[in-house]
TrEMBL record, chains A, B, C, D:
Cellular location(s): Cytoplasm
Catalytic activity annotation: beta-D-fructose 6-phosphate + ATP = beta-D-fructose 1,6-bisphosphate + ADP + H(+)
Cited Pfam families: PFK
Entries under PROSITE patterns matching the protein: PHOSPHOFRUCTOKINASE (PS00433)
Domain called Phosphofructokinase: residue spans: 6-285
Organism of derivation: Alkalimonas collagenimarina
UniProt keyword annotations, A-Z: Allosteric enzyme, ATP-binding, Cytoplasm, Glycolysis, Kinase, Magnesium, Metal-binding, Nucleotide-binding, Transferase
UniProt-recorded name of the protein: 6-phosphofructokinase
Claim: Cell cycle is one of the keywords in the record: no
Annotated metabolic or biological route of this protein: Carbohydrate degradation; glycolysis; D-glyceraldehyde 3-phosphate and glycerone phosphate from D-glucose: step 3/4
InterPro entries named in the record: ATP_PFK, ATP_PFK_prok-type, Phosphofructokinase_CS, Phosphofructokinase_dom, PKF_sf
GO MF annotation: an example: 6-phosphofructokinase activity
Main location: cytoplasm
Length: 331, 331, 331, 331
């Protein structure tokens, strides 16, 4: 039988749509199991500053559809010191919390692991980030929404690109992985996709970008050309690449950096469902004794995965669609 | 080496968002393999009436984001007779088509199988329906969009339900399965879900519906109550249930039948990507000799599944979330 | 100099997108003028039951984009009795409120007028209803959003109607006026619009509906036919009309009743701006002594209009577009 | 009686949502009057290159909801020479066009006026631009949609800004006017608005920006701060201002340049209705002999305005809301 009576929960790192749905699921599930929940504000800072409040089912009513996070998020440099980690653990002990749930990316999970040596309770991670760069789960909470937000923007850009017969470079988020760029690129029918998995470009190294443009120009009826690129793939980003490209081919290329729009918005159904499932599963697994594990979903089944392996970067983007796009999208 | 030189494609049955993305992928992939594509209009009727046209990459430009189907869809009663099936096969032979791709649900696949005895070429199905009631694939093309369309509507109903502190019954599509109702119900935070998998209700059999409402009314702060129900779960549908419920509990309940809105709209990313992947995969598998198979996706891998098994109804909705919802959503 | 020190605000009748934006504007404007604001819950019921709370700028942060109303809304039958009106006025006196702002439709304004004989303070109305059937303002708060919500739904129905080449009847809200039906009908390119201003239809009186359908059928390439109708224009509504029409012309017609979706959702820019402008103007005019007036906007200018004239129904829908639609939409 | 038998239509300059709705209205209205319509591609370039096609009602079916323009748009430097203008007029004569309708901004109207000396027919302008910087009409076609597109993005940024308690600068389009920035800024509840009407900022001139930020920081509960700014208001745009501001106040400020997203997307109802009304009105007025006039809408009434006055920049943004925002938004 479980001895879990009180747990803490926080959201950390870049916020992602669905974080609120996950908080809600944790609170509702815990309430059904007669477990109390304490929410910390501003990520791990709330642990260090002691900023917290009790979360009842009433507090999470009608937040499933809200973007952002009612607990606020933040980076927390203080946690990188032993002092910070000890203070955080101290707060958990003082509040008599049997466990802490951390909703965030692999950086946030490292934060949880930093606390572990000083904390007697259990630590569980929940993958909340738009970037999908967390091992141990097929998708992270927020990823599906970020794709649809990007798509919505690119569909609009297609309208104007098509009206004006222009070349557009759309830069999407994704830190060191191309998940969002590939998915949004395929889904918007991008003529070209640039992502880390295909290799970073050096300044002035434009051949691989220009060749498919020139190929497409030969084809009758091609009225617009959209390049979807992940951030950090060209020095200076899409703005610099657009300028260099314009000069090299003599056609005006325009850059559009989507930026933080991708983090916000009401989560799509897939994110709300994933967040709900993982939140419930995490509470159940806590009661079974899980510790230093992340609750993820692989092949539609919830499961546990060691926190320390979540950042290894072993999850790859699907090569099938990437290959397909390179073969056919320019026809 | 493949001997596929010319193939036909059609969309059949209830239309679904992503059908155009699938047609596009078939045409682009075929073009890259130097295979010609003929599109038939109005489902199998186009085969019987000989209504068709060549589809080039140019024709499928910028349709990936469009709802509906550029080939139109329809039911085709004529195909249920041997004469109809022979005529359809005759058209395929006359146009020298080595294969036919049918985008639709299991009813449409039965249409394809009806042609098989009279047709020398290959037949492949692609699962295009919002209902997700096709075995052999985790999701059908259109399902993800239908969930998000329903969600978007229910989130709006939540606003007004909450402002007025009312009980609303929202009736969603889904024929004989509760996929849409369950997914949308979980994702909107519905207080109650009624779907075939939990049993159909008889006229006046309201106890199981009323009990959780009364339980919720006891709880402070519950300002609205939304019941998401699949169609065909109560005689007369949600309108009748709302009337009977209003009378039984003395609180005004309102019904909202979402209806055909759920079939339309620009497909979400997940549907565009699934449609693109399966369209490409189907063409490749045709070249490998596939026949009387459906191209589906299971655990993120494209694969083949016998057409004749697609309608067995063995795919079940996830019991985990259904159980969870019944335990906690009313807290 | 104004002697206004404390005012009350409530939302009444059917809720409308933008009511929150209006509450926010009232609170922010009042704060800038050092006026305190008390919000009543559930419309006039909050006055009778004494359910109220102080509203500070902090409470209205980030509500400009929310549908519904943070003050809740309701009908209030008790106000129709002298006792009810006296009780309401008593609450206003007891709380030392110098004025009451009522956000709602003309029915709600009648509620305000019922209190007037017993209340020493000022009464001001703000037109909040999706129906736009309030004289003294070109548009009501919520009307623009309701049109766009209806459009979004009808665009989706167009997708499926077009895929299936079907006739659809879409029933929109609007009580006794055709504002929403006409605007949404024009904006979606409806083939036919049925609204009270063109005359209500009697049971079985289908000629005027059928004639343009038959005319359109003669025209090549017409792949779908959408009739947008206001509620209460045919006995039994769109469902009955669809059934009668199907029988009369032998083509399946489908009905779609949009219902309460039209009341919810995040307000569009036009409604947020109108709500903000009128909320600010109402507070300023209170300070100038306005009483028993509605703050409205005519020709882009805010102005006052007597509350007692708001329900005369003298505002007409623009005949220009209605005539145009009847002349050309079927070509 | 009108002698108009054949007219031309083109879209020119930056594309705007609703241009298709306007083309549709022109074609449908003309058809009802038995006037033929010829559409030119790529703005005035189509006149010079002779790229055109007949537009029948069939061609404009279901385009009312599409962004972009089916006629494509472009700038046309060739028109700035007498040779170019003569060639354009020659094409109009050769095709026996009695009039030309130009949908675009005041730059496009200057193009029309450049042709006038060499053309015997009538010239009419229709205000299609998101910027709303055209005199003679309260709103231009595309303006309402651009506001809502910006709002949709800023609401998402609010989610993440609020989660992270950050300062964001959102840069909107608008060339030399602040219409979009003011409207979107008011409607999103921006804490600060920077637009040309309030004066352009010089490099390093940050006092007027910083003061309200510092004021807001003093206020409890302010969890995010959004500055909406028009383009061209600070050297280097929002990116430079964000960097300078970050350095000056020691708080990280982030810039988001919405860019061309604002031009695309399905037009909102207001733009579809305005485009429909003005398109119909323009054809009717052509038949009455109008020449060198723009069809606009002032106080809900369609009317004519001299083309040569459309670019005088006399239309001002509403000072009421701008003043209000400066007084209260930071409370």
């Amino acid at each position: 039988m479980s001895t879990i009576k009180r747990i803490g929960v926080l959201t950390s790192g870049g916020d992602a749509p669905g974080m609120n749905a996950c908080i809600r699921s944790v609170v509702l599930t815990a309430a059904a199991k007669e477990i109390e929940v304490v929410g910390f504000s501003h990520g791990f800072n709330g642990l260090i500053d002691g900023e917290h409040r009790t979360l009842l089912p009433y507090h999470v009513q009608h937040i499933i559809q809200l973007g952002g996070t009612i607990l606020k998020s933040a980076r927390c440099p203080a946690l990188h010191t032993e002092d910070g980690a000890r203070t955080a653990a101290g707060t958990l002990h003082q509040l008599q919390l049997d466990a802490l749930l951390v909703i965030g990316g692999d950086g946030s999970f490292r934060g949880a692991m930093a606390i572990a040596p000083f904390y007697k309770g259990q630590l569980i991670g929940l993958p909340g980030t738009i970037d999908n760069d967390v091992d141990g789960t097929d998708a992270t909470i927020g990823y599906a929404t970020a794709i649809d937000t990007a798509l919505d923007a690119i569909d609009k850009i297609r309208d104007t690109a098509d009206a004006f017969e222009r070349i557009f470079l759309v830069e999407l988020m994704g830190r060191h992985s191309g998940f969002i760029a590939l998915s949004a690129g395929i889904a918007c029918g991008a003529e070209q996709i640039i992502c880390p998995e295909l290799g970073l470009l050096k300044k002035g190294q434009l051949d691989s970008v220009i060749r498919p443009i020139q190929h497409a120009q030969l084809i009758k009826g091609k009225s617009s050309y959209i390049i979807v690129m992940a951030e950090h793939c060209y020095p200076g980003g899409s703005t610099a690449l657009a300028a260099d490209l314009s000069e090299a081919i003599g056609i005006e290329c325009r850059a559009c950096v989507l930026g933080h729009i991708q983090r916000g918005g009401s989560p799509v159904g897939a994110d709300r469902i994933l967040a709900t499932k993982l939140g419930a599963y995490a509470v159940e697994q806590l009661m079974q004794g899980a510790h230093l594990m992340m609750a993820g979903e692989v092949n539609h089944q919830a499961g546990l995965f060691p926190l320390e392996l979540t950042g290894e970067g072993k999850k790859n983007i699907d090569p099938y669609l990437l290959n397909w796009q390179q073969q056919v999208a320019n026809d």
